[in-house]
Specification:
single chain; about 100 residues; mainly alpha; Chromosomal Replication Initiator Protein Dnaa, Chain: A
């Protein structure tokens, strides 16, 4: 599993383009897509926070930290975040665990 695969799939399920997602635009749907990608990338790769920020076009590592906290705080409360994160977990956690077995 690579970072671009995570970013592409996240963009697809969030209904945005990869280019939009990597832009500096602060529309909610794009911000949430970036935050979800950062969360999955952090969970499923060994990339540093700075590398994750660079891959997503974020300012720096502190933006990734904020993204991780936001996803954790919104999961189970915000229906959009919960639904999309569940889809990402099904895709990447299940796929990863099956391939590792």
């Amino acid at each position: 599993m690579n970072v671009e695969e995570i970013i592409t799939y996240t963009a697809d399920i969030c209904g945005v383009s990869v280019e939009e997602m990597k832009s500096r635009c602060r529309k909610r749907d794009l911000v949430v897509a970036r935050q979800l990608s950062a969360y999955i990338i952090k969970e499923k790769t060994k990339l540093s926070l700075t590398s994750i920020a660079n891959a997503l076009g974020l300012k720096d590592h502190s933006t990734v930290i904020h993204s991780l906290k936001t996803v954790n705080n919104l999961y189970g409360i915000d229906n959009f975040v919960t639904e999309k994160l569940d889809l990402l977990k099904i895709r990447f956690y299940w796929e990863f665990d099956v391939k590792s077995s």
